[in-house]
Amino acid sequence: MYITPHSPWKGAFYERLIQSIKHSYAKAVGRRILNLDDFTTVMTEIEGTLNSRPLAYQSTDIDDFESIRPIDFVQRSVMLTPNMETIASDTDEDDYRPAHERHRFQSRNQAFDALRKSTNIVEQFWKKWSELYLINLRDYYALRQGKTTNREPEQGEIVLLIEDDLPRNAWMLGLIEAVIRGKDDSVREVKLRLPSGSIVNRSVNTIAPTEIRSVDTNAARTDDRD
Fold first, then answer.
1. What is the mean pLDDT of the segment spanning 78-84?
2. Where are the alpha helices (DSSP H) in 142-174?
3. Contact 138/162 with Cβ under 8 angstroms?
4. Which Pfam families is this protein grouped with (predicted)?
5. Which are the contacts of 180, defined by CB distance < 8 A and separation ≥ 6?
6. How far is CA 114 from CA 34, 37, 94, 121, in A?
């Protein structure tokens, strides 16, 4: 990304993104010292998480939406999240196996245990990073150089919901059906239609725009100042 010299605010979101990644990784790993194999696995999984985030949506129809992710520029529609539920341990059956098979299954179970260990770290990373990412999107969306002037949510816009405990690489979205204004005529609440078809009301503090919409909006504002 090109950033005009002496205009650091133009790269503010990307600087926040990098900071959130470092902070979340430190929280997930803690004081543990990973060996090279574990570190490589964790970083590869984190890379998959970052490259699976939705940059934008190609349709405003929530029943037929398709997100654009960084990974789609390499391989479209690829899934980067392993299904840990399909990984079963055969430890309880080892006593019933011939000696020549026990070693093979023991090695496999050790590999699965190592995968679970790295997956637990990545899950902790996801929990922290996804929260920071959405909050940064929301805050950057409202930022204007020199003063804070909210760009209000609009009817027909697809937004991300700031929710707790979402599965890894899962993002909850909603289509703004209506905006509800307060006494000061500012948008305080939105009525959202979810992919399930249900209608919910949410405070504007609990929704965030998609990344490209957020960055493009603020880039246009800062360009106007130039």
1. 61
2. none
3. yes
4. DUF5641
5. 187, 188, 189, 190, 191, 201
6. 11, 9, 19, 11
